[in-house]
Design goal:
Helix content is about 50%, strand content about 0%. The protein is an all-alpha fold and about 90 residues long.
Length: about 90
């Protein structure tokens, strides 16, 4: 079994790669020119629903809060904010 390494080189868009919206319109015109009857009402649309856990929401809020938010939370008794300020003061 051969295992190939993963490259960190970014992929560049070439003439053969098209965004999905262009690909769909190209497929529609190709099928209608070949005798198939395709209209926009016959194309199925899908919707994905994503739910984010409360732990993930809390982690995001903690990661994106400003230093002023940390100070305010520490004044209001937030232990994590107090520990974070103590670490910053010690550094």
């Amino acid at each position: 079994m051969n295992v190939q390494g993963v490259s960190s080189t970014p992929v560049q868009q070439t003439a053969s790669t098209k965004p999905i919206s262009q690909t769909n319109s190209t497929n529609q015109s190709a099928s209608s020119s070949s005798g198939g009857t395709t209209n926009s009402s016959s194309i199925n649309s899908t919707t994905d629903t994503v739910s984010i856990s409360s732990a993930a929401k809390t982690a995001y809020e903690e990661a994106t809060e400003t230093p002023a938010d940390v100070v305010t939370e520490a004044r209001n008794g937030d232990r994590y904010a107090q520990q974070l300020l103590a670490k910053q003061a010690a550094a």
